[in-house]
Specification:
Length: 132
């Protein structure tokens, strides 16, 4: 089960997101259930509020002049309740402008849930979705 935001690269309308999840389902042999938060609701995420408010507080307006500075400031963040943060620089290459055709989308092994099938769906590990 993956709970995802409805915006950005994990958005419920992102073709590359669904295509890559279908590839993961095929590779692992697992059915992947996805439930997207309704648009705008990620702002209510308590963990994000707890974490990002503390990171911002830790920065205290210091200029973010380098990756090292950013990683050190994020990694030094803690809270009175014991929350700690680990930060690492991801140097991976992520291609942009990938186009997924309607044909490729139609071939995805996906079953949409009855309730908001545009936000909730299952990607299957094989080419044929399981019956509902």
């Amino acid at each position: 089960m993956i709970t995802a935001d409805s915006g950005g690269s994990t958005g419920n309308r992102r073709r590359t997101w669904k295509t890559e999840l279908a590839a993961l389902a095929a590779e692992t042999g697992l059915a992947i259930n996805v439930c997207h938060l309704p648009p705008g609701t990620s702002k209510w995420n308590k963990i994000e509020h707890r974490l990002f408010s503390q990171i911002t507080r830790n920065w205290r307006g210091r200029p973010l002049e380098s990756h090292e500075t950013i990683l050190n400031l994020i990694g030094a963040t803690t809270t009175d309740t014991g929350l700690t943060v680990t930060a690492a620089l991801d140097t991976g290459l992520y291609p942009i402008g990938i186009k997924i055709s309607d044909r490729e989308m139609g071939a995805l092994p996906i079953t949409r849930n009855e309730f908001h099938g545009d936000w909730n769906y299952t990607l299957h590990p094989n080419d044929t979705p399981e019956p509902d």
